[in-house]
Structure formats: C-alpha cells, structure tokens
Amino acid sequence: MNKLMNAKEYEESLRKLKLKVYMFGKRVENVVDDPIIRPSMNAVAATYEYAHKPEHEDIMTATSHLTGKKINRFTHIHQGVDDLVKKSKMGRLLGSQTACCFQRCVGMDALNALSITTHAIDEKYGTEYNKRFLKYLGYVQENDLTCDGAMTDPKGNRSLSPAKQFDPDLFMHVVEERPDGIVVSGAKAHQTGAVNSHEVIVMPTITMREEDRDYAISFALPSDAEGITYIMGRQSCDTRKLEGLTFDRGNMFYGGHEALVVFDRVFVPWERVFMYKEYDFSTMLVEHFAAYHRQSYACKVGVGDVLIGAAQTIAEYNGAERASHVKDKIIEMNHLNETLFCGCIACAAEGHREPSGTYQNDLLLANVHKQNVTRFPYEIARIAQDIAGGLMVTCPSAADLASPEVGKWVEKYYRTRDDVPTEHRLRILRLIENITMGTAAVGYLTESMHGAGSPQAQRIMIARLVNMKHKQKAAKELCGIEKGDQVS
Amino acid sequence: MRDRKGRPGKLKAGIKYCGGCRPEFDRIAAVKEMKEALGEAIEMVRMDDEEADFILVVTGCKTACVDVESLPLKAKKYISSLSDARRVMEELANKTKT
Questions:
Q1: B67 vs A54, more confident
Q2: Closest approach of chain A CAs to the CA of B48, in angstroms?
Q3: Which domains does chain A possess?
Q4: Are A93 and B21 within 8 A, CB to CB?
Q5: Which chain A residue has its CA at the smallest distance from B58's CA?
Q6: Is the CB of B15 less than 8 angstroms away from the CB of A54?
Q7: Complex prediction ipTM
Q8: Residue A270 contacts by C-beta under 8 Å, 6 or more apart in sequence?
Q9: How confident is the model at residue A322 (pLDDT cuts 50, 70, 90)?
Q10: Is residue A160 scored above 80 in pLDDT?
Q11: Which of A105, A246, A254, B85 gives the lowest tally of CB atoms within 10 Å of its CB?
C-alpha cells in the first residue's frame, strides 16, 4: 500500500524517531515541539499537505516509474523533461507559500543523482549498486519519506586532499569493513532539514583520487541510526521564536534549519551502500547532484515572490506606491526574479535521458541559473530594504505595541494612513526583515550564495561546459579568418 | 438541459487544477465565483468522479502545463484566465436554463 502522507501523519512519523539533537549546548528531548525547530518542521510538512490539495497536486505528485502509483514528487525519479520542469515549478510554488527553505529538495536530488551513478558504476564494474538503490528507492516512495541529501564534508584544509588532512574524519570515510557492512566516521556540515528527515543519504563532496578511495563512499541510513549526532546551527534572530507567537518573528508559520551531522563509527549494512571505493565515479555523482540541486534553487523565485509582495505592500502602507522610482524598483525586483525563473525552467526544458532512464537537467544552464541565484536575491533584498525604509530595523517590538503604557505612542507615531492599522505596517516590515536579515535570510541570501556550491564552483563548471571552439569558429568565419559556408 | 421530469437538470463538473506555480489569476476564487453564480445548477466534484458530466480544467496561466492525458476521457472545458471563467460560466448558465 503506497502511503501519501499528509502534514499530520508526517509530524507523527517524526515523533517516532529517536534523534540525538543538541542546541545551545543541551540535548533537545522533544525535537518536533521545540519552538525554534518547529517552524522548519512546518515547512517540510507543507510539502506533504500540498500534495493533497487539488489546486496543487498536479505539481506536487508524480507517478512512480517503479510501481505506477501516485507518489509525492519529492520521492520521484524524473522520467522526462516534463518532470524536470514541474520540479522547478514545485520549487517556486513552495517557496511562495512558505517564504523559506522547505528542505526536502536535497533528498530528491540525491535520489536522482544516485539513480544515474549507481547504474553507471554497475555498467563498468558489474556491481549491483543500482539494484540495491532501486530497492531503497521503493522503500522511500512506499513510505513517502523525507531524505537529507548529505554531501558537504567539513573539508578541513582546503589545499589538501581528503587522504592528506591532519584529521582523517574531516571527510567521511570507511574505518572498518565487516562481512555484513561497513563502519564509517566523519561529519556532514550545513545539513538543511537534517532533524526533519527520516533518512540521511551520504555522498562524497568532491572528486576523489585513488589515494582517497576510502572516502569515495555513498550510503543511506535511518536518521536515528546509532552513532549519529545532530548539532543545530544558529540563525540570526533565532531566539525571537522563544518569545511566543508574536509578529516580531516575521514569518508566523515557517522557517528552515541546518545542522552539523556527526557520524561516530556508524554501521552501514551492505544493502544500503551505493558506492564503495569507486573513486572514479565520485565526480559523476557530485556533478549530477550539483546540477539537480542548482536547479532546485527555483525555490528562491518563490521566496522572491513573497518579498516583492511585501515590498509593494509596505510601499502602499507608506503612501509611496505612486512614486515613479518606487514603481521602477518594483519592476526591477520582478525582472530579476523572473530572470531566475527563466534559468531554472531552461535547464529543465533542455534536459536529456541518461542511460539509467533518469532525465538529467542541462548541466551548463543549471550552473548559470545557480550563478544568478548567488547574486539576484541580494539585489532584490537590497531594493526591498530601500522601499521598506529604516523603520524595518528601528521599530519597537510587538510587546511595546501591546504595552498599556507606551503602546498608544507606537500606535500613534507609526501610523501612516487611516485605513492601515499600525500593527499591519509593523507586521509587513518584520516579514521583510525576516527574509532579508533574519532567520529566513539564511535561506534567501547566504544559502543562495553557498548552497549547492559557492559561486566559484559554478564558474568552474561554466568554463568547463561551454563550447568555446564553436564560438571561436563562428567569430573567425564571420570576419574572414576562416572559410565557412556563409551566404554571400 | 432538463431531467426526466422536465425540470432544469444539475450538471456535475469535475475540477482539475494545474499546480499553480505562478497563477495570473486566483483560480480558487474563480471557481468559487462560478459555483456561487450557477448555484444549484451545477455541482463541483473531483475530476475523477465517475458521475462528472465534463471536466473543468483550471490553469493559472496559458502555458497550461497540467497533465490532461491522465484525465478521464470526457469533454473538457478550459479556463486559463478570468475572461475564460466568465465565458464558461455564461455557457453553463445557458445550458442549465434550457
């Protein structure tokens, strides 16, 4: 029986996990209900709930190529260009509904990259990784699981390869081989949605050479496997969530999170190992995953939709919406945001079929898209702050507005129009603050910069993937250096 | 359209929405407006309801990327703008009067 979970069922499934989570130096006993973590759980829950909404299911669900059953798109292996395009649209949709990172795309990208790479390893070495992987995929689809796609190692000294680090654990590696599986040690940093995941899928983070073969490993584990510890990352303004459900948090419902995930001598059974020392396939896995995940930054377009809506709203509340420069700034925000959408649609529309049957997006265009994502959200955020005005960072708290003593002064002096309550003005300012410099800025800005690879990683790929000879040939023929078949 | 006793008949419309990634109009509000305007003359049901007389395919933009191939083989009416919604509403209103 295929299970398409709803939000409540997802939440209950998380309660069954026995995760070892630390935050502010203490063990978190109740992860699901923790006030700082819960908004991020709500965002993942939205990926489940929206699959049940008639007005969104066409994007949020797909048909499993394994079983023919309806599944959540986040567990789907892309079977055509249409799937790739809908993946981008799903990112925009959920970004626009949550205004944060909903954390589930990274697992989908890991599943798709592994479907291609395990097939390729088997073709060369006669192994059976793809068979194992497909069995695992069936389990993920059947139970509608959220997977943390864990790629980024701490990496230690960037000038040294994994095998040459002063501490071998700075890259995930195998420390023991047993008849029934392997034992691994290491860590994965910046793991988005880690404590909201049922499974963790580990992949190597860089190209491995022969000397690094112990580091060329990929596997999947239940997120509460023995030996895994989660240490939550801090976010700007995170403790506002401890102040109760006040509008000072900006986004009243959703958020994201990242964690350092430590693997201390963790056992992995063979049936869950998808790459074992085949270092010559590490590049393939990394590049395919990176291309998928760079496309996944379609979500920032959705967050941009919210920020543009907030900027227009505060302009209207301030009575500035008719000013020509404000109108022009809103146009610029839309131009940048839709340009991002062009990139994530284009790399999907230009996708192709891999030998495994999985459809891969266009690597060059995916990298170009992500390169734009490292820049445009910053400019959109800058314009939003410009339109919002300085009150965004100087306005008193929700508690001051509610104060019997000073609330009347906050109400009086921050009122702009008869028909707009002061509280509404402060609420929309707090949302802009949240996205551009609060907890959601982690996702909208810095994650846009470094997530799925820092800007230089995309530039290296762009340089490698463009056909420069083709461009030079066109130039040389048109100016007469070389003879072509031009019409004359 | 009339039932066997000659009274104006009720139409059953199966609704199929696109995913709604960047709708150019409020799809839900448009269907709600249609339902309110047509009142008892029409019943909105799920697109896979076997008793649906036709399927109303509501898409947020003219790209209309909705998967129609998997829909039941029934007549389909497409709405991808507010003007489409009004046109279909008038058409259905006329149909249920006759």
A1: A54
A2: 11
A3: 295-467 (1.20.140.10)
A4: yes
A5: A55
A6: yes
A7: 0.85
A8: A132, A180, A181, A182
A9: very high
A10: yes
A11: A246
* Domains by residue range for chain B, with CATH: 11-97 (3.40.50)
Contacts of B80 in chain A (CB under 8 A): none
Contact A58 B19 (CB under 8 A): yes
Going edge to edge, which strands form the sheet with B11-17? Answer: B42-46, B11-17, B54-58, B76-79
What pLDDT was estimated at residue B97?
72
Active site residues of A: 101, 105, 192, 258, 293, 297, 299, 447
List of residues 6+ apart from A235 with CB closer than 8 A = A255, A257, A438, A439, A442
> Can you name the residues that pair with A72 across neighbouring β-strands?
A61
Cα(A174)–Cα(A180) distance, integer angstroms: 14
**Best interface-test mutation with B: which of A47, A53, A55 has the largest number of B CBs within 10 A?**
A55
Q: Crossing angle of helices A455-465/A282-295, nearest 10°? A: 110
* pLDDT tens by residue, A172-230: 999 999 999 999 999 999 999 999 999 999 999 999 999 999 999 999 999 999 999 99
Tens digit of each residue's pLDDT (9 = 90 or more) over A14-44: 999 999 999 999 999 999 999 999 999 999 9
Contact A244, A301 (CB under 8 A): no
Nearest to A360 by CA among A297, A289, A301: A289
Residue of A nearest to B22 (CA): A93
Is the Cβ pair A56, B20 closer than 8 Å?
Answer: yes
Structure tokens at A7: 């939000």
Instruction: Specify the residue for token string 């797909």.
Output: A62
* Inter-chain residue contact A59 with B19, CB threshold 8 Å: yes
Band (pLDDT 50/70/90 cuts) for residue A371 is: very high
Spatial CA neighbour of A270 closest among A105, A132, A118, A476? A132
Determine the pLDDT at residue A436: 98
